[in-house]
Write a structure and sequence with these properties.
It is a single chain. This protein is an alpha+beta fold and 321 residues long. The protein has two domains: 155 residues, 2-Layer Sandwich (Fructose-1,6-Bisphosphatase, Chain A, domain 1); 142 residues, D-Maltodextrin-Binding Protein, domain 2 (3-Layer(aba) Sandwich). The protein is 29% helix and 27% strand. Strands 1, 2, 3, 4, 10, 11, 12 and 13 form an eight-stranded mixed sheet that branches. The protein has a five-stranded mixed sheet with strand order 7-6-8-5-9, with helices on both faces. Helix 1 packs antiparallel against helix 2 and helix 6 runs parallel beside helix 7. The longest helix is centred in the first third of the chain and has 16 residues. It binds 1,6-di-O-phosphono-beta-D-fructofuranose.
Protein backbone atom coordinates (compact mmCIF):
# COMPACT_ATOMS: atom_id res chain seq x y z
CA UNK A 1 0.00 0.00 0.00
CA UNK A 2 1.13 3.55 -0.67
CA UNK A 3 2.31 5.49 2.32
CA UNK A 4 -0.06 8.34 1.47
CA UNK A 5 -3.14 6.09 1.61
CA UNK A 6 -3.47 6.49 5.37
CA UNK A 7 -3.82 10.27 5.13
CA UNK A 8 -6.38 9.87 2.34
CA UNK A 9 -8.42 7.51 4.50
CA UNK A 10 -8.75 10.06 7.29
CA UNK A 11 -10.93 12.12 4.96
CA UNK A 12 -13.36 9.19 4.91
CA UNK A 13 -13.75 8.90 8.68
CA UNK A 14 -13.85 12.69 9.07
CA UNK A 15 -16.76 12.92 6.63
CA UNK A 16 -18.69 10.17 8.44
CA UNK A 17 -18.11 11.80 11.83
CA UNK A 18 -19.10 15.26 10.61
CA UNK A 19 -22.35 13.91 9.20
CA UNK A 20 -23.38 11.69 12.08
CA UNK A 21 -22.42 14.05 14.92
CA UNK A 22 -25.31 16.25 13.77
CA UNK A 23 -27.56 13.56 15.26
CA UNK A 24 -26.02 13.66 18.73
CA UNK A 25 -28.62 13.31 21.45
CA UNK A 26 -31.54 13.39 19.03
CA UNK A 27 -32.69 9.90 19.90
CA UNK A 28 -32.46 8.57 16.34
CA UNK A 29 -29.68 6.02 15.92
CA UNK A 30 -30.87 4.94 12.46
CA UNK A 31 -30.53 8.44 11.02
CA UNK A 32 -27.16 8.93 12.71
CA UNK A 33 -25.95 5.68 11.13
CA UNK A 34 -27.43 6.52 7.72
CA UNK A 35 -25.74 9.93 7.69
CA UNK A 36 -22.37 8.36 8.56
CA UNK A 37 -22.73 5.62 5.98
CA UNK A 38 -23.71 7.94 3.11
CA UNK A 39 -20.94 10.39 3.89
CA UNK A 40 -18.35 7.63 4.13
CA UNK A 41 -19.53 6.09 0.86
CA UNK A 42 -19.31 9.42 -0.99
CA UNK A 43 -15.69 10.02 -0.05
CA UNK A 44 -14.47 6.48 -0.66
CA UNK A 45 -14.71 6.84 -4.43
CA UNK A 46 -12.12 9.63 -4.37
CA UNK A 47 -9.55 7.39 -2.66
CA UNK A 48 -6.78 5.83 -4.79
CA UNK A 49 -7.35 2.13 -4.18
CA UNK A 50 -9.16 -0.93 -5.49
CA UNK A 51 -11.04 -1.89 -2.34
CA UNK A 52 -13.56 -4.60 -1.51
CA UNK A 53 -15.73 -4.35 1.58
CA UNK A 54 -15.25 -7.48 3.71
CA UNK A 55 -16.82 -6.05 6.87
CA UNK A 56 -19.58 -3.57 6.22
CA UNK A 57 -23.13 -2.53 6.83
CA UNK A 58 -24.55 -5.96 5.94
CA UNK A 59 -25.08 -8.28 2.99
CA UNK A 60 -25.93 -6.81 -0.43
CA UNK A 61 -29.66 -7.48 -0.05
CA UNK A 62 -29.90 -5.77 3.32
CA UNK A 63 -27.65 -2.71 2.99
CA UNK A 64 -27.90 -0.14 0.18
CA UNK A 65 -24.27 0.89 0.56
CA UNK A 66 -21.03 -0.31 2.07
CA UNK A 67 -22.39 -3.83 1.75
CA UNK A 68 -20.09 -6.84 1.90
CA UNK A 69 -18.51 -7.34 -1.52
CA UNK A 70 -19.02 -3.74 -2.64
CA UNK A 71 -16.12 -2.26 -4.60
CA UNK A 72 -14.66 0.97 -3.23
CA UNK A 73 -12.07 3.47 -4.40
CA UNK A 74 -11.24 5.18 -7.69
CA UNK A 75 -9.88 1.97 -9.22
CA UNK A 76 -6.23 3.08 -9.32
CA UNK A 77 -4.07 1.75 -6.55
CA UNK A 78 -3.54 -1.28 -4.34
CA UNK A 79 -6.07 -4.10 -4.07
CA UNK A 80 -7.21 -4.02 -0.47
CA UNK A 81 -9.75 -5.49 1.94
CA UNK A 82 -11.83 -2.81 3.64
CA UNK A 83 -13.63 -3.05 6.99
CA UNK A 84 -15.95 -0.19 7.87
CA UNK A 85 -18.06 0.82 10.81
CA UNK A 86 -19.27 4.26 9.72
CA UNK A 87 -20.77 4.82 13.16
CA UNK A 88 -19.40 2.65 15.95
CA UNK A 89 -21.80 3.35 18.81
CA UNK A 90 -25.13 4.26 17.22
CA UNK A 91 -26.89 4.38 20.62
CA UNK A 92 -24.05 6.47 22.03
CA UNK A 93 -24.68 9.19 19.47
CA UNK A 94 -28.44 8.96 19.82
CA UNK A 95 -28.09 9.63 23.54
CA UNK A 96 -25.09 11.98 23.37
CA UNK A 97 -22.75 9.77 25.42
CA UNK A 98 -19.01 9.01 25.20
CA UNK A 99 -16.75 7.30 22.70
CA UNK A 100 -18.68 7.07 19.44
CA UNK A 101 -16.31 6.78 16.47
CA UNK A 102 -16.36 6.67 12.70
CA UNK A 103 -13.88 3.88 11.93
CA UNK A 104 -12.34 1.90 9.11
CA UNK A 105 -9.52 -0.54 8.60
CA UNK A 106 -7.72 -1.54 5.42
CA UNK A 107 -5.31 -4.40 4.75
CA UNK A 108 -3.73 -6.04 1.73
CA UNK A 109 -6.20 -8.07 -0.30
CA UNK A 110 -7.17 -11.31 1.51
CA UNK A 111 -5.68 -10.32 4.86
CA UNK A 112 -8.76 -9.38 6.91
CA UNK A 113 -10.92 -12.07 8.52
CA UNK A 114 -14.38 -11.86 6.94
CA UNK A 115 -16.00 -11.92 10.38
CA UNK A 116 -19.71 -12.63 10.25
CA UNK A 117 -22.15 -10.53 12.25
CA UNK A 118 -22.18 -12.53 15.48
CA UNK A 119 -20.70 -12.21 18.95
CA UNK A 120 -17.01 -12.64 19.68
CA UNK A 121 -15.33 -13.13 23.04
CA UNK A 122 -12.49 -10.60 23.24
CA UNK A 123 -9.43 -9.62 25.20
CA UNK A 124 -7.41 -6.51 24.34
CA UNK A 125 -4.25 -5.16 25.94
CA UNK A 126 -1.56 -2.61 25.20
CA UNK A 127 2.09 -3.29 24.22
CA UNK A 128 3.43 -3.98 27.75
CA UNK A 129 1.11 -6.96 28.15
CA UNK A 130 1.75 -8.66 24.80
CA UNK A 131 2.36 -12.39 25.28
CA UNK A 132 1.17 -12.24 28.88
CA UNK A 133 -2.60 -12.78 28.53
CA UNK A 134 -4.68 -15.64 27.20
CA UNK A 135 -8.39 -15.44 26.41
CA UNK A 136 -8.86 -18.97 27.82
CA UNK A 137 -7.18 -18.19 31.15
CA UNK A 138 -9.18 -17.31 34.27
CA UNK A 139 -9.89 -13.57 34.68
CA UNK A 140 -7.73 -13.38 37.80
CA UNK A 141 -4.69 -14.79 35.93
CA UNK A 142 -5.02 -12.23 33.14
CA UNK A 143 -5.41 -9.38 35.61
CA UNK A 144 -2.33 -10.53 37.56
CA UNK A 145 -0.36 -10.74 34.31
CA UNK A 146 -1.34 -7.23 33.18
CA UNK A 147 -0.68 -5.77 36.64
CA UNK A 148 2.78 -7.35 36.67
CA UNK A 149 3.54 -6.26 33.10
CA UNK A 150 2.56 -2.68 33.92
CA UNK A 151 4.25 -2.68 37.30
CA UNK A 152 0.98 -2.02 39.11
CA UNK A 153 -1.18 -3.65 41.74
CA UNK A 154 -4.36 -5.38 40.60
CA UNK A 155 -6.27 -2.74 42.58
CA UNK A 156 -4.75 -0.06 40.31
CA UNK A 157 -6.01 -1.66 37.09
CA UNK A 158 -8.96 -0.32 35.11
CA UNK A 159 -10.85 -3.02 33.22
CA UNK A 160 -13.37 -2.01 30.57
CA UNK A 161 -16.28 -4.27 29.77
CA UNK A 162 -19.67 -3.75 28.13
CA UNK A 163 -22.43 -3.41 30.71
CA UNK A 164 -24.44 -6.47 29.69
CA UNK A 165 -26.29 -9.19 31.55
CA UNK A 166 -24.13 -11.80 29.81
CA UNK A 167 -21.10 -10.31 31.59
CA UNK A 168 -22.48 -10.58 35.15
CA UNK A 169 -20.20 -13.46 36.11
CA UNK A 170 -17.11 -11.88 34.60
CA UNK A 171 -17.83 -8.54 36.28
CA UNK A 172 -18.17 -10.38 39.59
CA UNK A 173 -14.80 -12.07 39.04
CA UNK A 174 -13.13 -8.74 38.22
CA UNK A 175 -14.63 -7.22 41.37
CA UNK A 176 -13.47 -10.15 43.48
CA UNK A 177 -9.96 -9.69 42.07
CA UNK A 178 -10.07 -6.10 43.35
CA UNK A 179 -9.61 -4.30 40.02
CA UNK A 180 -11.52 -1.19 39.08
CA UNK A 181 -14.07 -1.32 36.27
CA UNK A 182 -15.52 0.96 33.61
CA UNK A 183 -18.88 -0.42 32.53
CA UNK A 184 -19.52 0.67 28.97
CA UNK A 185 -22.98 1.36 27.60
CA UNK A 186 -21.61 0.61 24.10
CA UNK A 187 -18.49 1.04 21.97
CA UNK A 188 -15.90 -1.68 22.51
CA UNK A 189 -13.67 -0.57 19.60
CA UNK A 190 -12.70 2.63 21.42
CA UNK A 191 -12.29 0.61 24.62
CA UNK A 192 -9.86 -1.81 22.98
CA UNK A 193 -7.79 1.00 21.46
CA UNK A 194 -7.67 2.82 24.79
CA UNK A 195 -5.74 -0.09 26.34
CA UNK A 196 -2.71 0.94 24.25
CA UNK A 197 -2.71 4.58 25.37
CA UNK A 198 -1.55 5.10 28.92
CA UNK A 199 -3.27 8.47 29.30
CA UNK A 200 -6.70 6.94 28.88
CA UNK A 201 -6.17 5.05 32.15
CA UNK A 202 -7.53 1.85 30.61
CA UNK A 203 -5.46 -1.33 31.15
CA UNK A 204 -7.44 -4.20 29.64
CA UNK A 205 -10.70 -4.85 27.82
CA UNK A 206 -12.64 -8.05 28.45
CA UNK A 207 -15.98 -9.54 27.43
CA UNK A 208 -17.93 -10.18 24.27
CA UNK A 209 -19.16 -7.82 21.58
CA UNK A 210 -19.59 -7.80 17.82
CA UNK A 211 -17.16 -9.93 15.78
CA UNK A 212 -16.85 -7.30 13.01
CA UNK A 213 -15.85 -4.73 15.64
CA UNK A 214 -13.33 -7.27 16.91
CA UNK A 215 -11.52 -7.41 13.57
CA UNK A 216 -11.43 -3.61 13.34
CA UNK A 217 -10.06 -3.34 16.89
CA UNK A 218 -7.44 -6.00 16.08
CA UNK A 219 -6.17 -3.88 13.18
CA UNK A 220 -5.85 -0.89 15.52
CA UNK A 221 -3.94 -2.92 18.09
CA UNK A 222 -1.67 -4.39 15.43
CA UNK A 223 -0.75 -0.83 14.45
CA UNK A 224 -0.14 0.02 18.11
CA UNK A 225 1.88 -3.09 18.98
CA UNK A 226 -0.75 -4.32 21.43
CA UNK A 227 -2.55 -7.66 21.53
CA UNK A 228 -6.07 -8.77 20.69
CA UNK A 229 -7.46 -12.28 20.91
CA UNK A 230 -10.96 -13.35 19.94
CA UNK A 231 -13.22 -16.38 19.88
CA UNK A 232 -16.37 -16.55 17.80
CA UNK A 233 -19.56 -17.21 19.77
CA UNK A 234 -22.17 -18.60 17.36
CA UNK A 235 -25.62 -18.57 18.96
CA UNK A 236 -27.61 -20.50 16.34
CA UNK A 237 -27.03 -23.41 13.92
CA UNK A 238 -26.97 -20.80 11.10
CA UNK A 239 -24.19 -18.85 12.82
CA UNK A 240 -22.28 -22.08 13.40
CA UNK A 241 -22.60 -22.82 9.67
CA UNK A 242 -21.25 -19.33 8.86
CA UNK A 243 -18.15 -20.08 10.94
CA UNK A 244 -17.59 -23.32 9.03
CA UNK A 245 -18.01 -21.54 5.69
CA UNK A 246 -15.23 -19.20 6.78
CA UNK A 247 -12.99 -22.19 7.35
CA UNK A 248 -13.28 -22.05 11.14
CA UNK A 249 -14.20 -25.67 11.91
CA UNK A 250 -13.38 -25.44 15.61
CA UNK A 251 -15.24 -22.41 16.96
CA UNK A 252 -13.43 -22.76 20.27
CA UNK A 253 -10.22 -21.95 18.49
CA UNK A 254 -8.51 -18.76 19.66
CA UNK A 255 -8.26 -16.20 16.87
CA UNK A 256 -4.95 -14.45 17.34
CA UNK A 257 -3.91 -11.16 15.85
CA UNK A 258 -2.60 -12.81 12.67
CA UNK A 259 -5.84 -14.79 12.22
CA UNK A 260 -7.84 -11.56 12.41
CA UNK A 261 -5.50 -9.47 10.30
CA UNK A 262 -2.73 -11.17 8.37
CA UNK A 263 0.51 -9.65 7.09
CA UNK A 264 2.20 -6.55 8.35
CA UNK A 265 0.57 -3.92 6.19
CA UNK A 266 -2.70 -2.59 7.54
CA UNK A 267 -4.09 0.86 8.20
CA UNK A 268 -6.59 2.00 10.82
CA UNK A 269 -8.39 5.33 10.83
CA UNK A 270 -10.94 6.73 13.28
CA UNK A 271 -12.54 10.11 13.88
CA UNK A 272 -14.28 10.99 17.14
CA UNK A 273 -18.01 11.56 16.80
CA UNK A 274 -18.68 12.21 20.49
CA UNK A 275 -15.98 12.96 23.06
CA UNK A 276 -13.96 10.05 24.38
CA UNK A 277 -10.87 9.39 26.49
CA UNK A 278 -8.68 9.44 23.38
CA UNK A 279 -10.41 11.54 20.73
CA UNK A 280 -12.56 14.61 20.95
CA UNK A 281 -15.92 14.53 19.25
CA UNK A 282 -17.01 16.83 16.43
CA UNK A 283 -17.41 20.49 17.37
CA UNK A 284 -19.53 22.68 15.12
CA UNK A 285 -18.49 26.31 15.34
CA UNK A 286 -20.89 28.09 13.03
CA UNK A 287 -18.81 28.67 9.93
CA UNK A 288 -16.49 25.73 10.61
CA UNK A 289 -16.38 22.36 12.28
CA UNK A 290 -13.49 20.67 14.07
CA UNK A 291 -12.60 16.99 14.16
CA UNK A 292 -9.97 14.86 15.83
CA UNK A 293 -8.77 11.67 14.21
CA UNK A 294 -6.31 8.87 14.77
CA UNK A 295 -4.62 7.20 11.81
CA UNK A 296 -1.99 4.48 12.02
CA UNK A 297 -0.12 2.04 9.81
CA UNK A 298 1.28 -1.22 11.12
CA UNK A 299 4.10 -1.50 8.58
CA UNK A 300 5.73 1.80 9.52
CA UNK A 301 4.48 1.92 13.11
CA UNK A 302 3.43 5.53 12.58
CA UNK A 303 0.62 6.78 14.83
CA UNK A 304 -0.81 10.18 13.95
CA UNK A 305 -3.41 12.36 15.62
CA UNK A 306 -4.96 14.64 13.04
CA UNK A 307 -6.86 17.82 13.95
CA UNK A 308 -9.18 18.93 11.17
CA UNK A 309 -10.81 22.31 10.70
CA UNK A 310 -13.51 22.15 8.04
CA UNK A 311 -15.06 25.20 6.38
CA UNK A 312 -18.85 25.03 6.23
CA UNK A 313 -18.87 27.69 3.48
CA UNK A 314 -16.44 25.90 1.19
CA UNK A 315 -17.78 22.44 2.02
CA UNK A 316 -21.56 22.94 2.30
CA UNK A 317 -22.05 19.19 2.02
CA UNK A 318 -20.85 18.99 5.61
CA UNK A 319 -24.17 20.45 6.77
CA UNK A 320 -26.95 18.10 7.84
CA UNK A 321 -27.64 15.18 5.53
O1 LIG B 1 -25.14 -4.35 22.18
P1 LIG B 1 -24.56 -5.75 22.06
O2 LIG B 1 -25.52 -6.68 21.41
O3 LIG B 1 -24.05 -6.23 23.38
O4 LIG B 1 -23.33 -5.67 21.04
C1 LIG B 1 -22.11 -5.08 21.37
C2 LIG B 1 -21.58 -4.30 20.20
O5 LIG B 1 -22.42 -3.14 20.01
C3 LIG B 1 -21.63 -1.96 20.15
O6 LIG B 1 -21.62 -1.56 21.51
C4 LIG B 1 -22.20 -0.80 19.33
O7 LIG B 1 -22.59 -1.24 18.06
P2 LIG B 1 -23.51 -0.32 17.09
O8 LIG B 1 -22.70 0.87 16.74
O9 LIG B 1 -23.77 -1.20 15.91
O10 LIG B 1 -24.73 0.10 17.82
C5 LIG B 1 -20.24 -2.43 19.76
O11 LIG B 1 -19.22 -1.55 20.19
C6 LIG B 1 -20.18 -3.78 20.40
O12 LIG B 1 -19.20 -4.60 19.80
Amino acid sequence: MERSLSMELVRVTEAAALASARWMGRGNKEEADRAATEAMRDVFDTIPMKGTVVIGEGEMDEAPMLYIGEKLGNGYGPRVDVAVDPLEGTNIVASGQWNALAVLAVADNGNLLHAPDMYMEKIAVGPESVGKVNIDAPVIDNLRAVAEAKNKNIEDLVVVILNRKRHEKMIQEIREAGARIKLLPDGDVAAAINTAFDDTGVDIMLGSGGAPEGVIAAVALKCLGGDFQGKLLPQTPEELERCKEMGIEDVNRILNMDDLVGGDDCIFAATGVTDGELLKGVMYKGSSAETQSLVMRAKSGTVRFVDGKHSMQKKPDLVIR
